[in-house]
Amino acid sequence: MLKSSSCISILPYTVKQPSYLKTHHRISSNLSSGRFTVHGGGGGGGVTAISSSSRLRELVFVVNPQGANGRTAKEWKKLLPYLRTRLGKDCNICESLTSGPSHAIDITREAIRDGADAVIAVGGDGTLHEVVNGFFWEGKPVANLNGEANHSAALGLIPLGTGSDFARTFGWTNDPCEAVERIAKGIRSRVDVGVIDNEGKDLHYFINVADLHLSAKAGFYASKYKKFGNLCYVIGALQAFMGHHNRDMRIRVNGGEWEMYPQVTALCVGNAKYFGGGMKITPNAVPGNGNLEVVVLQDFKWYDFIMKLHKLYNGTHLSVNNVSSRSVQSIEVQEISNSGSIYVQSDGEHLGFLPRKFRVLPGAIDMIS
Ligand SMILES: Nc1ncnc2c1ncn2[C@@H]1O[C@H](COP(=O)(O)OP(=O)(O)OP(=O)(O)O)[C@@H](O)[C@H]1O
Questions:
Q1: Are 134 and 200 part of one and the same domain?
Q2: ipTM
Q3: To 10 degrees, the CA torsion angle through 68, 74, 77, 80?
Q4: CA 277 to ligand 1 center in whole angstroms
Q5: Which of 176, 191, 206 is the last residue of a domain?
């Protein structure tokens, strides 16, 4: 169980405390003893309500103050009084501000090990991605070290980023009060997670969309234009087309035969539907169905991208020539010419270059939804 003290806003600890709290604030406490009924667990797609017994829920909010070009910090500050009022009676609320890239991963791991009931990403898809990666360590789910066998931490989200694309699949808006309501209700559902590896090494997890080549370059460039809001992704894509070469690739689905895919512009592996600030790139992806949707764009030029942009946004691009889609449990992707120039990204995080294998972990995380 997490360590706590009486009701104060900013608590200088005198006892050993989890490091994710060291520079941060415990906002509410009154921790009573006893256990807390969490969920039924099990396979993909199940939904279970949290019911509290005598112990308060331990919620750790991982806040990226730099999200949405600094807007996340401002929104979070405004949200805190409401959050305290709405959740403070039933929950211990810990906030932890990230200090830079990857910090959210460490905060999450430590929070789960210390027995948090939920770790809630506050920010955009990049922050959510890091929190998701914090649920795993060396290829396995991170365990609560308090010996509570039936206790697993849930993932939560207050979408306050630029794109906040994962939230779109569920129809969630960037309204933080709506997100607080979801957390107050505490309904959990199992969601799938994608995992990417390079010959069994270098594991990375994604909950939204992993992709490669043009769209991955676009994501990299978009990060430099966040001040333009969602337009940053279109600007990033156009910049990525400069000097871009479509490449011949081969793919292998579910361990079957290798298949040739000439002149690939981008290959996107969706656990959820949206990326790039609202482009419905993998419109058939469902985060709890045990599959990933793979969409391949071939032989696209920059002007095709412009002409078909509206179809990308509304998800009707699958009917366009040179766009194909399939549902997979795993997909391996290699480049034929080995130019070494095919970028791979995972929920927007740059991961290096091909080859890579993508596969689904069905129902890997409980999500507050
Ligand atoms: N304190 C920090 N300073 C600078 N960068 C940070 C800090 N904390 C986290 N980051 C990085 O900022 C990246 C982007 O943040 P985030 O995804 O929350 O916002 P966004 O990019 O505006 O939203 P979206 O990804 O939804 O478009 C994260 O992937 C993380 O690596």
A1: no
A2: 0.98
A3: -50
A4: 14
A5: 191
